[in-house]
Structures are given as structure tokens and as C-alpha cells.
């Protein structure tokens, strides 16, 4: 049985909620990613910030990226999956919430990886991938 840990991109890094949007954007550039999990003061997942969030929620609003905390851009309850979850649970979570990136958390509630659409494309059968795309992108 394939687990979330088997398909995730390991070594994901998060950004503290009080870090600036500018630093988050720099970190995305350095890591070559389009999203970063956001942690609270206790290093617990409290959100996710995407490159789109930065553009729409900060730049387009004429906010100062060097003075805006990343936490100001996070919305709602972040979704995540345990590292030992079955891949079908991963798909269900992403499909139900129409999300394209999913943090993977260990038993101590610490970030251990991220699952993206690219990870799914590399590890799923064409049939499962097709079902995922249809459910996530369906209007």
C-alpha cells in the first residue's frame, strides 16, 4: 500500500507566520517552489502561502512586502495529511478541498514533506491521476 510519505517531496520547509512576505518570496525562489507552509510560534502548521497569494493579497493591494507578515495572507484552516496515510486518503483530501498542494505531517505534528500535483503525476496511474484532475478542476 502506497503511503503519503512514499510520494511526498521530502524536506519541505516552512516560514514563520511573522516572517515578511518579501522573505517568503525569496525563500520560494531559493527553493524553487510556489508554496510554503506557514508555522505558528510553536512550529505548528497554521496556513500555506502561495506565490499567487503574494501577488493577489500583497502586491496587487499595494501593500509593502517587506513590512507585511506572511500570516496576514493565510486564510482558513490549513489541510494536511499524516505521513502514514494511504495515497487514496491523500487524493480524497485534495479532491474534497480542491487543493493542489498538501503538507505531510509526522506523528509529532511536524512538517516532513509536501505533496504537489507533480508528485501525484509521478506516482499515480493514469486512471487515478485523471480522476484527481477531473475532481479538482471541475467547476
Automatic annotation (TrEMBL):
Annotated keywords: CBS domain
Stretches assigned to coiled coil: none
Domain CBS: 8-66, 73-131
UniProt signal peptide: none
Pfam family, one: CBS
Matching SMART domains: CBS
UniProt key word tRNA processing: no
Record-linked PANTHER family: CBS DOMAIN-CONTAINING PROTEIN, CBS DOMAIN-CONTAINING PROTEIN CBSX3, MITOCHONDRIAL
Identification of the protein by name: Hypoxic response protein 1
Organism this protein belongs to: Streptomyces violaceusniger
Lineage per the UniProt record: Bacteria, Bacillati, Actinomycetota, Actinomycetes, Kitasatosporales
Amino acid at each position: 500500500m502506497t503511503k503519503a510519505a512514499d510520494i511526498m517531496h521530502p524536506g519541505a520547509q516552512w516560514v514563520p507566520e511573522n516572517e515578511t512576505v518579501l522573505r517568503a518570496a525569496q525563500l520560494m525562489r531559493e527553493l524553487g517552489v510556489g508554496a510554503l507552509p506557514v508555522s505558528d510560534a510553536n512550529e505548528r502548521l497554521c496556513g500555506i502561502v502561495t506565490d499567487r497569494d503574494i501577488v493577489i493579497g500583497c502586491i496587487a493591494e499595494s501593500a509593502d512586502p517587506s513590512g507585511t507578515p506572511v500570516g496576514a495572507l493565510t486564510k482558513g484552516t490549513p489541510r494536511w495529511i499524516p505521513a502514514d496515510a494511504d495515497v487514496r486518503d491523500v487524493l480524497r483530501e485534495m479532491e474534497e478541498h480542491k487543493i493542489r498542494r498538501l503538507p505531510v505531517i509526522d506523528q509529532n505534528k511536524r512538517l516532513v514533506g509536501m505533496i504537489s500535483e507533480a508528485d501525484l503525476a509521478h506516482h499515480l496511474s493514469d486512471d487515478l491521476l485523471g480522476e484527481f484532475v477531473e475532481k479538482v478542476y471541475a467547476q
